[in-house]
Amino acid sequence: MNALISTAVFGIFLMISGLFIKSKQAIRILAISGVVAAFVLNIIDFRQYGASATELFHGMLSVTNFGLLFIEIILGCVLVYFLLSGKDLANIGHYTGEYFALIFFILCGVVLAATYGNMLMLFLSIEIMSIPQYILAGSDKHNLKSHEASLKYFLMGAFSTGFLLMGIALLYGATGSFDITTMNLAGRPIDAMALAGIILIAFALAFKVSAAPFHFWTPDVYDGAPTVVTSFISTIVKVGGFVAFIRLFHIAFGSPDVDKHWLLVLSIITAATLIIGNVTAVFQQSVKRMLAYSSISQAGFMLFAVIAMNVLSWQGILLYAAAYSLATIGCFAILMKMKDYTYDGYNGLAQKQPLLALMNTIFLFSLVGIPATAGFLAKYFVLSAAVEKGGLLWLVILAVCCAAISAFYYFRLIWAMYFKAGDCQVEEHAITPAFKSVLALTALLVIILGVWPGLILAWI
Amino acid sequence: MPIQNYIWLSIALFSIGVIGVLIRRNAIVIFMCIELMLNAVNLLLVAFSKYHHDASAQIFVFFIMVVAAAEVSVGLAIIVMVYRHTKSVDVNILNRLKN
What we know:
The complex is a heterodimer. Chain A is an all-alpha fold. Chain A has helices at about 1-20, 25-45, 65-90, 95-115, 120-135, 145-175, 190-210, 220-225, 225-235, 235-250, 255-280, 285-310, 310-335, 350, 355-370, 375-390, 395-420, 435-450, 455; strands spanning about 55, 60-65.
């Protein structure tokens, strides 16, 4: 488990180095090299583990090549995030080392989420992901909105942790085990206590991935937090929550006589997430808030991978994690360069910064799911997983309709950039050739994944 | 004592915590109610641990305590930060973000 150790050690190292290294540039380069190191170490790890689970630390972790591939995707996305937005992250406040250290601690939680084999590790991974986020959301100490986002996030997050723990305790009472593989719910009538446990855990995890009706904190927190932090918590941490979700429900509660009890509940949550996320996003005036609602609606699509439970859904969540994270990180990176966050602030961007407008269009195409972008294939995989599962056709039709609604608010931004005359204000000095080239590479990656998903899926 | 008594006691404590979070407006009190929820879980885990003759739940309780302590340190810092700006710990101020 090189990834786990390297992210944790690097987090502590960066925290201490913040004391001695005053140069923001140096800390940023240190952090980027840390991600690269973790990326390489994880590739070395990758060869040692196969498709069947390897138990580590007395069953606390169960490592599969799916988990390691997921970690690899996440580390790749974080690398893109650091390259695109690292400067903005360093400039939130005075404590540059700490911001990067907190990101590494969150990564450590995501690694645990992709490899846990025990409920204790599930709880720890969710908490390690959450607690640094509360701090990061409030890191802009001069902005009252950031404080409010932080407090709201903290109270809601701690509240949902209570539900997660109650669910785990009830499930333990019913089964006598914390191990997700030997929990053994199948093959006997399921009692009320186990059922209550499963439903409470489902609610708590839905809370963490901001699925409706537990999404109410999301727009406010994403809007209030510094944009560079929103970019991170709406992508990396959200897909990290999803991998915890999908692994728990497939491995522990996946057998056919157990899943009939929770399938309907999660289907309704999925439907509500799709409808609420997409319909509310239409009415937003601020692009930042629109992206917050867009992250809710994309969570609705990722929930399909949880309820479908077959090979396609595992592949789908990997592709979705990559496609959604890359496109959203790109959109936010461009948003951070704008002075006005409303749709009107984008008016005429195509004349002023043609490359930025083009890249933003590719990212938005991917989020809508236009063919030949990664977003299309990701949506195709999760929806066809649901079709293959059977009995979920109504949900698939609803999802396709919602994808059509989503085109409205994404295309509105493209419309503003290309077809509306205006004088948009961008921070010219921040748009360096390096930024542009990384952005172009990210957009290229989105298109490559859209025509050649084997880049990721060949490894599983 | 039968296990049911412990389960009902825990569920009662947990519900008090949930209701407290939902109806109280003071951030500190909400925080205390969340702690009540966590401690209801701790009680339940210890009872189940005895019931199943399995010590792993007691270890779990220690982890919950440690994580709760970490959460308290972060949470109180956030509440203090908000208080310095607004001179209030009333969560109704959070509604300002809505528009």
